[in-house]
Amino acid sequence: MKIKATVLREMGKEAPYAKSKPLSIETLELTEPQANEVLVKIKATGLCHSDLSVINGSRPRPMPMVLGHEAAGEVVKLGENVRDFEIGDHVVCTFIPSCGHCIPCREGRPAMCEKGAAANAKGEMLGGGYRLRSESENTMHHLLGVAGFSEYAVVSTNSIVKVDKDISFEKVAIFGCAIITGIGAVINTAQVRPGSTVAVIGLGGVGLSAILGAKLAGASEIIALDINEDKFTLAKELGATQVFNSSSDDVVEELKEYVTGGVDYAFETAGVVPAMEVAYKITKRGGVTTTTGLPDPKHEFAIPQVTLAAEERTIKGSYVGSCVPERDIPHFVNLYKQGRLPVDELLTDTIALEDINEGFDRLARGEAARLVVIMS
Length: 376
Prior knowledge:
By secondary structure, this protein is α/β, with parallel strands linked by helices.
């Protein structure tokens, strides 16, 4: 079938993207779903820094590629052997397809799926190969097994989670990346304890979700840091008890004066080394520093090694919030329905597919927590 989708053919074009237009809207051919795959009519897809990092070249991926991974839609066709989904189901896409058979999957760590990671690195489907092509190219890569900036997508059943039909697509889409990554980092990876002190550096969709997670975990202090002070109002509305400008020369001393010795848990969600350096420095002796950020692979983070042993410090990485999507997404959706997760506040704006380049300009400038493309 022919579909309309956005295509990235060249990484590293200079911003503003409204002018350089790295993403083009093209007509592509989408093949039928194969075994253990479904065809999803995409209804909404969020703009995420993981997409932006491919556009700007800091996370190299094979080209050409259809971006978009924080997607939600409706199942309209089933491939062979599909048993757990039906036509008409509302689903949220997850960006690490888990095979269920490798050692990490068997250990209950689907975010670390070896086969899924290999497929994502190649821009292929979990079942191998591609389902997209253009008139001139037989190979059109899928970002993270989703390729959600499109009218329709063929996805593995291991890349989707069924959700309630009474939540709008533009809201439920955010659960597929921002929510599970941010809240999961707090609840699953760091396992924040009630009454502890927490700091979050980087107030995009993931960082703001981490603030929601810290509030759910019962943290006594939730400190929000960013270089853009325009984000502080929303951070406070979501649960932050104090804010600091992370670019300030005195931010470490100021925070350690506010919370004597530093925080129990610090979360770096910006994906840049300076933010990680601040996160580590404001973590107290015996504390835990967790990062969800995905910086350029060439960028390195250095620490005094002695602090790890002498101060019993812990550094953790968190991918997809260490989540089990089939378990955690429905749980977080239920919390939203109970009024305990104000996800609506994360949705800055909805845009049309035709405005996607301008949308990524807004995201790069830090003007939005989450922008969501609504497919007509």
